[in-house]
Amino acid sequence: MRLKTYLLAAAISVLIGATPPRAAAQNPDTMMPEASAAKAKQLLQQLIQGLGGPAYLQVRESMCEGRLAQFGHNGDLMGYVNFKDFWRFPDKNRTEYGKKGEIVDLYNGDSGWTLDKGGVSEEPASAVTDFQERTKRDINNLLRLRLKEEGMAFRYGGGDIADLKQVDWVEIEDRERRIFRIAIDRATHLPLRSLVVTRDDATRERTEDLTVYANFHPLDGVQTPFQVSRDRNGRRAFQAFYNDCKYNPGIPDDFFTRASLEQHYAQVGKKKKK
To answer: Which pTM does this prediction carry?
Structure first.
């Protein structure tokens, strides 16, 4: 009996020894800063590859269209409007609303104009400032153009579950103290969520912008989310459903100028008179 017991224990010991140990989950709180930064950069490279690699990095222009949700002051959904969104990265953007682009917001660096039924006028200085801040928070500008900026700090944020999928969080802090947190799908290496945290220097008020990406499609070699929603401090601020996107379509140089808006207004006005 003792011999059988000894042999059973020995067999179990051998089996345990032959079983390869499971890799221990990395705890971001116990990692050295250098290892944490290296892990974060590795995940970011996987993210960029998942989004299309060289095809993604070489995007300098985009032209997308779809439906944009409209929200009231209390956050209630008021309906949807057709829109077209044109970018020349990092800081030229033109968004046309309505089937014929009857309303347009256009930004070009530190300048901005709007077109409505009254004609073309300059955007308020506060709107231009908000746009410039938005370009610095944009995940595409971050991944394509900003990762090598001086003063960037990287950290591995650990594993988690987001939208019922296993993700790894990566944290990036720029020299102006914006904190970016990106949830990367372990299976597809695509971004599921991004959170940007900022704090007002004067009031110390904290702002959190959470963006959720879903329904990815490969377009021109670039994985493109056809559904994007954004909450600011827990309140829905933006939701778009895209029908199509084109990358590097060859947008004319004068497309992001006030003169182009004046010309567009003349065309819209003629169509209205008909």
So the answer is: 0.86
